[in-house]
Amino acid sequence: MENPESSRTDDPVAGLLARYIRMPGVPDEMIGSDGGLRPVWAKFIPGLAAFSEDALAARQARGDRYLRDAGVFFRQYGPDTPVERDWPLSHMPVLIGEDEWAGIEAGLIQRAELLERVVADIYGDNRLVADGHLPPELVAGNPEWLRPLVGVAPRGGHFLHFLAFDIGRGPNGAWWVLGDRAQAPSGAGFALENRIATARSFSELYADLNVQRLAGFFKTFREALYRLRGSDEARIAVLTPGPMNDTYFEHAYLARYLGLMLLEGEDLTVRNGEVMVRTVAGLRPVSVLWRRLDANWIDPLELEQDSRLGTPGMVDALRAKSVTMLNALGSGVIEARAFLAFLPRISEALTGEPLALPNLATWWCGQQSERDHVMQNADRMTVGDAFANAPSFGHTSIDLDDGESLGDRIERDGVHLVGQEAVALSTTPALDDGQLVPRPMSLRVFLGRTPEGWQVMPGGLARIGRRGDTVELAMQKGGSTADVWVVGHRPAARVTMLSGRGDDVLRQKPEELPSRAADNLFWLGRYVERAENAIRLTRAYHLRLAEASAAEVELLEAVAAHLTWLGASPEQGFPQGLGAMISSAANTAARVRDRFSVDGWSALSDLDRTLAGMSNTALPGDDMARAMSVLLRKISGFTGLVHDNMYRFTGWRFLSIGRAVERASLLAGLLVDFGDPAAPDGSLDFALEAADSTQSHRKRYAVATSRQTLVDLVALDTLNPRAIIHQLDEIETHVGFLPDTGVARQLTPLQRSLLQMRAMLAGRTPEALTTPIIADIRTRFVALADELAEAYFG
Amino acid sequence: MLYDISLSIDYDYENAAGSSRHIVRLMPADLAGDQQLLTGNVSISPQPDEIRYFTDFFGNNTADVSFIERHDAIRFSVTAQVERQAQAKRFDTSTRCADLGSTLRRTLTLGRDSPHHFVAASPRVALEAETTAFARAVVAPDMGAHDAVIALGQALHAEFRFAEGETTVDTPMIEAFRNRSGVCQDFSHIMIAALRGVGIPAGYVSGFLRTLPPEGQARLEGADAMHAWVRAWCGPDMGWIEYDPTNACLVGEDHIVVARGRDYFDVAPVKGVMRSWGAHTTRHMVDVVPVGES
Question: What is the model's pTM?
Answer without folding.
Answer: 0.87
